[in-house]
Design goal:
By secondary structure, the chain is α+β, with helices and mostly antiparallel strands. Helix content is 34%, strand content 38%.
Length: 167
């Protein structure tokens, strides 16, 4: 390879950081489902900033790390888990801009029924994230809109290339 085409060490470091950021955000997005299905209150809380918000369009908003983590202790959540339930996220589309990022994906709740498993809820999801002091990532705001034929869900998904701070 000609030397003019070789990436500089600085370029390699930036590319490596970008890959590490993306992988860390993938882990964070998919980790929510495992933590909430395992009723692991501490793990759910660790994904969010202290003042994080989890806004679910047709349900309302959970504000603050403790309230979001408390989802795992709610009787309705525990009943769903007891009957067979899984929270799944698709691979997110990630945009990183310095110490802030966005991740856009589909999320779904799969339930067990008398004839097998079925998708109980399919949503559009957009997460706004910030870098933690140790270099990891945390969720500052998560917005979900159920994909029920209304405009809110598709509009959220259409913003996939918009980076942090976009209205």
């Amino acid at each position: 390879m000609p030397s003019s085409r070789r990436p500089s060490k600085n370029s390699l470091a930036k590319r490596l950081q970008a890959l590490e950021d993306q992988l860390s955000i993938y882990q964070l997005v998919c980790g929510y489902g495992y933590a909430v299905d395992g009723c692991n209150e501490q793990a759910v809380g660790s994904l969010y900033s202290e003042n994080g918000v989890y806004a679910v369009g047709d349900v309302g908003a959970f504000e603050g790390r403790q309230r979001i983590a408390g989802i795992t202790t709610q009787p309705g959540h525990r009943a769903r888990i007891a009957t067979g339930c899984g929270h799944l996220s698709t691979l997110p589309y990630v945009v990183v801009a310095g110490d802030r990022a966005t991740a856009t994906c589909h999320t779904m709740v799969v339930m067990q029924g008398k004839d097998g498993f079925y998708v109980d809820r399919l949503s559009a999801s957009r997460l706004e994230l910030s870098r933690t002091p140790d270099g990891g990532w945390q969720i500052d705001h998560r917005q979900n809109h159920v994909l029920n034929g209304g405009a809110a869900g598709p509009a959220l998904l259409a913003r996939l290339r918009e980076g942090p701070g976009s209205a």
